[in-house]
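Memo subject: From amino acid sequence to discrete backbone structure tokens
Action wanted: Derive the backbone structure tokens from the amino acid sequence.
How to read it: Take the token row as a discrete description of the fold.
Attached in line: The record itself begins immediately under this heading.
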Amino acid sequence: MEVVLMSGDRIASVRREASGLWAGGTGKLLIVIACGWGLLNGTRMIYPVLLPYLSAEFDLTLTTAGLLVTLIWLGYAIGQVPSGVLADRRGERAVLTAGVAIVAVSLVLVVFAPSAFALFVATGFVGLGLSLYPVARITVLSDMYPDRIGRALGVTMAMGDIGQTVLPPVAAAIAAAVAWQAGLGFIVPPLLAVVLALWVTLPAGTTTPGDESVDDGPNGIGEALATLRHPTLLTMGIILFLYIGTLQTFSAFYPIYLTDQKGLSSTAASVLFGLFFAIGVVAKPLAGTAYDRIGIRRSLPIVLAGAVVGFAILPLVERLVSLVAVTVLISTMLGSGAITQSYLSDTIPAEIQGTGLGLIRSSAAMLGATGPVLFGAVADRGYFNEAYFVLAALVGAITLLTLRLPRE
């Protein structure tokens, strides 16, 4: 009887949370924003599963393949500062729709790229389009859900992981059956549909339903830089740099690592790669809820512990069942995004929130973008396995840095 009551309490709690996220007309906006985030994240992670096809057609080495992925992340980093400034001053609708539209057009250019140079240039624009979405997404959700930001970000990030789980295997299957161009081009029509949905659903020049005001307050880059010199925010910048660099590096090369070093087929590797993000669908909402309840100092180390162990033992396992278990262990790190982004949203002053988030995320992502090309260079020299021990050490360093953050 007690078990039944506890189960009923959990169901009632889930219903209350769902009602809180849906209340006041915000639920529709949350769905549209989350769907856009899912498609963009899935698009970004299609690249790793198509790298063997791109390498064959454009004669890329592991180092140059890593550079291609680095270009996506570099473009993703560069645009986040202007995205944050525009979100603060002009509202999020134009920023979000422009970002998705640029990605759709750039993918068309990638599909028809006549040379490696054209491929790299178009891929850079894919990254720039991707960069316009994250900060504006956080600022609009922060205004929509001031008391539930962790949960709201957890939901959108979970949708991002659904996109990363579903789209790469679909792209791999289409590429194997038709061509790599079809494996990338199929995502363009859904992206255009999201552009239309964002434009119709989000109010112009505002971050919350029914508020048509535009904040032109003191949110300049100079003020933001002065604020971001606070030790807590500097520590968060380092944590983000290490985390983003580790995630970008792992996601760029895991499918190739599984095929080249572990002997898996490309289909099995893409499914295992999808499993990595599938766990994030559950991990991110749980991590966001944990942050809301117990704070970053206790929630983030718990989320990262599995990745430290997983990276350390990955080079040592060979059987498929062991690789599945290790993938699940590593995937728990995906929950950290809901924690760190929520913490930054709570910590940065509201009047410079978009600009501040843009500066921190852009700086961290720009530095982290060096990870894939460095990892590729190391792998080209025969140290593919050893590089994962370095990733384990980096995640361990993030855990230690978390303990330096204020308790409140």
Summary: Confidence is low (pLDDT under 50) at residues 1-18, 206-219. The chain has one domain: 13-206+219-402.
